[in-house]
Amino acid sequence: MAESTDFFAGRVAVLATMHRKEAAIAPQLEAQLGVRVTVPPAFDTDVFGTFTGDIKRPADQLTTARLKAAAALRQTGETLAVASEGSFGPHPQIPFVACDRELVVLIDRQHQLEIVGECLSTDTNYRSQAIHSPEEALAFAEAVGFPQHGLVVKDSEADSILGKGITAVETLLPLVKQALDQSPEPKIYLETDMRALYNPTRMGVIAQAAEDLVRAIAQGCPACSCPGFSVVKQFPGLPCSLCGTPTLLTLARLHRCQRCQFEQRLPGDHGFSAADPSYCPYCNP
Description:
Elements: H1 2-5, E1 12-16, H2 22-33, E2 36-38, H3 61-76, E3 80-90, E4 98-108, E5 113-121, E6 128-131, H4 134-143, E7 151-154, E8 161-166, H5 169-182, E9 188-192, H6 200-218, E10 230-236, E11 250-256, E12 263-267
Parallel strand pairs: 1-2, 1-3
Antiparallel strand pairs: 3-4, 4-5, 6-9, 7-8, 7-9, 10-11, 11-12
Helix pairs in contact: 2-6
């Protein structure tokens, strides 16, 4: 780890956020990498998209995080930046379960490095619901962890935001009643506010992604010690423990250094030398 942190120790890392993500990211980076994390003043990340949908994200999740980091570097003139980006939706393996995928990206212009930490978690209160009465609004709020978690109120078509960052019943109920009175149905929509400062559950997942970033940085290249000796390709085919048939589980991963391009094929990190027969297409067709 010491050789990896030498790349960053004593440097300033600008964190591209306006939603207090430094609470989840800064302590780990400062303790493990020896950097000093700062947040650019008046930095506006809403231009890169909002969870409420009023501003669309300009690109995919990773590219958007890169754009945030690049903007922070331009604004500050520093050479080291960190940015995070989240997305919410069905779990890729369990479609009926919602998940939160968080990326934390480190961009180092001095050493021409990009290192990514990631966390995919089902620990999320991501949810939206049509509301027809104040009682339904209160039931929804209770189910999603209000008032510790903020809420967003939208009109009957869910295309106009009537209020967001709502964390008090005294604010929520009058707004809901007024919106219902003005709705022809009556119907409005409530959804969880997924901005990090209004969603402590999401903040926890961001912290886990930051932990993964630190672990990725600690993976130094065996040839040149450059941090971020990362996976570039995965090979399925972990054999079934019962019959030896190749399964879809990861057998090995190809790691590559960004600086010297050294490559190494390593076993998958699942911790098993064989797959459970339940994953076997022959034993469990």
